């Protein structure tokens, strides 16, 4: 009995503490498991959010830096280009139009046209830009790009802006010529070049201000059927479709000039006639502008579109380099507008 009592007493004394200890250990394991699962779920949520945010980031424009060229380049065969454009237009499928807006195309005219004539040639298609040049015989003149959603109103307004810029350019050349008062051969040549630049700029300003017959190409957008209709008109020389063009700000258009008949090459510029003055004084008045050539009348070789040079500053204190009047593109707007659907 004593042994039994002893065991009962031991059970009464030892079992309750052991039971409480086991219970506490069980509670701790449960809490530890809950915390572990909570941490795992939190980490998974953070990781999922990060992955979703990365996937939701918009993809950058993969066409950055790519430039599409439509038209001719130096050394190209003009008849070959015209045949290629005609073949591309004939092969253009009706499915080439994009979302009902049509296909971009470069329309080259057979002669220089005034703004009012453009409505009959391009009136039923969406126009984006027109190309112009004053065809002075034997002189290189600047190629200008004029944004023109409304024809002919935007073309006339653009010509007025070019005329104002050319007036400033002519005045700058005259001011530069007045700063060269030496009598050495180099100074006389420099003075003559400045006077020639003023002469050409003044002639261009006068021509654009009167709405000259200076437009020779346009960028349009229309359905393949409408483009073929434009190509069949008498004033149109070629329609070069460009279904690969989606953005005009990443496209360079270089249409041939009406007087280009065989190969694209820089034009010959006769420049000023050398006439040294005995006293070396600069002329007090600028030379009279050269008369404008009639529409399409020019025997000079085909010019090449090049990057325009900035206008010289009239306040230069040192002797500036001689000017070179280049045949080059000059856009009035920073970015050509997208034409409306025809």
Could you explain the architecture of this structure?
The protein has one domain (63-330). Helix content is 40%, strand content 13%. It is built from 6 helices and 7 strands. Residues 250-342 are annotated as: Disordered. The chain crosses the membrane at residues 34-54.
Write the layout of secondary structure elements.
Layout: H1 2-56, E1 68-71, H2 78-91, E2 103-113, H3 115-122, E3 126-132, E4 144-147, H4 153-179, H5 185-209, E5 215-222, H6 224-231, E6 236-241, E7 251-254
Parallel strand pairs: 1-7
Antiparallel strand pairs: 2-5, 2-6, 3-4, 3-5
Helix pairs in contact: 4-5
Largest sheet: 5 strands, antiparallel
User: pLDDT under 50 segments (min length 5)?
Assistant: 275-342
Q: Mean pLDDT, as a whole number?
A: 77
Number of helices: 6
**For the CA atoms, what is the radius of gyration?**
38 Å
Give the N-to-C terminal Cα separation.
Answer: 116 Å
Helical content (DSSP H or I, runs of 4+): 40-55%
Task: Write down the overall geometry.
Answer: elongated
Q: Give the number of domains.
A: 1
Order of helices and strands: HEHEHEEHHEHEE
Structural class: alpha+beta
The count of β-strands is 7
Which range does the strand content fall in? 5-15%
Strand adjacency order, main sheet: 4-3-5-2-6
Keywords: Membrane, Transmembrane, Transmembrane helix
Biased composition (Pro residues): 309-324
Region (Disordered): 250-342
Transmembrane segments: 34-54
Summary tags:
single chain; 342 residues; alpha+beta; 40% helix; elongated; disordered C terminus
């Amino acid at each position: 009995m004593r042994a039994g009592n002893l065991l009962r007493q031991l059970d009464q004394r030892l079992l309750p503490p052991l039971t409480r200890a086991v219970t506490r250990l069980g509670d701790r394991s449960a809490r530890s498991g809950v915390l572990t699962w909570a941490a795992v779920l939190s980490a998974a949520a953070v990781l999922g959010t990060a992955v979703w945010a990365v996937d939701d980031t918009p993809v950058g424009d993969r066409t950055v830096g790519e430039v599409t060229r439509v038209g001719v380049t130096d050394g190209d065969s003009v008849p070959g280009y015209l045949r290629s454009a005609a073949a591309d237009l004939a092969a253009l499928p009706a499915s080439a139009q994009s979302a009902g807006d049509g296909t971009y195309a470069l329309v080259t005219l057979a002669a220089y046209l005034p703004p009012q004539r453009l409505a009959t040639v391009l009136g039923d298609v969406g126009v984006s830009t027109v190309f112009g040049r004053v065809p002075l015989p034997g002189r290189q003149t600047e190629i200008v790009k004029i944004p023109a959603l409304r024809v002919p109103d935007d073309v006339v307004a653009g010509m007025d802006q070019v005329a104002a810029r050319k007036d400033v350019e002519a005045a700058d050349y005259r001011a530069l010529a007045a700063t060269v008062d030496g009598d050495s051969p180099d100074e006389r040549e420099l003075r003559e070049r400045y006077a020639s630049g003023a002469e050409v700029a003044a002639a261009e300003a006068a021509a654009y201000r009167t709405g000259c017959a200076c437009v020779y190409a346009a960028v349009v957008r229309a359905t393949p059927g409408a483009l073929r209709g434009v190509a069949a008109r008498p004033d149109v020389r070629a329609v070069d479709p460009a279904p690969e063009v989606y953005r005009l700000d990443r496209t360079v258009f270089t249409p041939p000039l009406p007087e280009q008949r065989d190969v694209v090459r820089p034009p010959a510029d006769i420049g000023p006639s050398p006439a040294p003055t005995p006293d070396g004084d600069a002329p007090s008045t600028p030379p009279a502008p050269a008369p404008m050539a009639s529409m399409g009348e020019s025997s000079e070789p085909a010019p090449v579109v090049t990057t325009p040079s900035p206008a010289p500053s009239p306040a230069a204190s040192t002797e500036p380099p001689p000017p070179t009047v280049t045949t080059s593109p000059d856009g009035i707007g920073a970015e050509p507008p997208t034409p409306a659907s025809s």
